[in-house]
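Pipeline run #58 for the internal structure catalog. This entry was flagged by the ingest filter as a single-chain record with no existing model, so it goes straight to prediction. Upstream metadata was stripped on purpose; only the residue string is passed forward. Reviewer on rotation: M.T. Logging verbosity set to normal.
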Amino acid sequence: MGYNLILLGPPGAGKGTQAKLLIERYQIPQISTGDILRQAVNEMTPSGVSTKKYMDVGALVPDDLVIDIIKDRLLKPDSANGFILDGFPRTVAQADALSIMLHKAGKSIDHVISMTVDYEELLKRVIGRLTCRECGRGYHLVYDPPAIAGKCTVCSSELYQRDDDREDTMRARLMTYETQTAPLTDYYSSLSLLRPVNGLGSIPEINDSIVRLLEG
């Protein structure tokens, strides 16, 4: 049995890792807003042609276009047994539009999984990340350090910190997330769909918590 899910969580909470495990367990696709927008543009669908005009100038794609593209994606056969929405909705207005669209399609959201992690812990997770300039192998100063400081264990190339992983950038991203998402968590809580999950612990422990929420 599959589920229609929304996955919420701040940067660094481990959403991507848990989404992969849910995909394997339930055989449902992860629908990332950014990915399907780019796919619609590449396929030059009617909605994709309109979307390209906004993306070419760096403007936000209007909600109605995003909803149209998500609707097209949810009509594909692999979504018939469920899906994981990642990166949408981001606002209450988008959540309302999504609800209306799903209702017209005879679908509804089963659970909104909200991964919660203390922000100071998120900072520790993220600002310790290092990436190899050549092979792209990732490391962490605390959890997965390289054998030689500053050098990739695989190819001996230089390790660097991505701009997104710097403390000032991360604090700004977390502030933006909190501002956008606090009303959204209240929205889904009022509908009895919000399922908070403690994002601290091992990957299997967190996954077990999510599975218990879904199947229990």
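catalog note: The two ends are 13 Å apart (CA to CA).
catalog note: The chain has a mean pLDDT of 91.
status: ready for reviewer M.T.
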